[in-house]
Specification:
The chain is α/β, with parallel strands linked by helices. The chain has 4 helices and 4 strands. A 4-stranded parallel sheet has the order 3-2-1-4, covered by helices on one side.
């Protein structure tokens, strides 16, 4: 059985993603990341929580091998649509991540 916060994220995923598209704050954060990380050919990047995949898509576009993880199945659905070339895992982010230490060169 899914916990209450994840149920709420699943229920809010559509509205959250629509708001992110219009959000000046989200746009500013994205621009900061894009200025800082301009090329990452072959770098292994973890996007946690990945939400709708905005950063996963960006890091993939600059050459990174991206793994995104989130606890919300609905957010992962958005992420998979936004960044089909990335790997996405449903992960309980309240527990230790299921990845070996040192697997990623960058986590966002």
């Amino acid at each position: 059985m899914q916990n209450k916060p994840l149920q709420q994220w699943d229920a809010a995923a559509e509205a959250y993603e629509a708001e992110q598209q219009k959000s000046a704050y989200a746009r500013c954060n994205f621009e900061i990341v894009a200025r800082r990380f301009t090329a990452l050919p072959g770098a292994k990047v973890l996007d946690a929580p990945c939400g709708g995949g905005r950063f996963s898509k960006y890091f993939s576009s600059v050459g990174a091998q991206v793994t995104g993880c989130d606890g919300s199945q609905q957010m992962l659905r958005h992420a998979r649509q936004a960044a089909p070339g990335c790997r996405f895992d449903c992960t309980d982010l309240t527990k230790p991540l299921p990845y070996p230490n040192g697997e990623f060169e960058l986590a966002i």
